[in-house]
Design brief:
about 90 residues, alpha+beta, two-stranded parallel ribbon
Amino acid sequence: MVIRHLIILGHIECCTKPVLEWIAENTPDVLVNIMDQYRPENYCDMYSAKYDPAYRDMARFPTRDEIEEAYRYADNLGLNFETVTFEKRASRML
């Protein structure tokens, strides 16, 4: 089994960390894919005809700091995420 978790910008403390903690406590041996592929589209895309300013907080990609914080936290929890998270990368970001 692989649990996939999408990093959402601005939601590291309130969402990513609690989800990773839950995984560490309840399924510590599972593979975890920490995904950094969030992209603003449709109502969140400033270049879309459907863009709605109400979603301006979501109209960006996650920052490198947000992504690295999620990876560091997962690493500190001892989660098995590197194999599936970094499978297509030549080197780790950390």
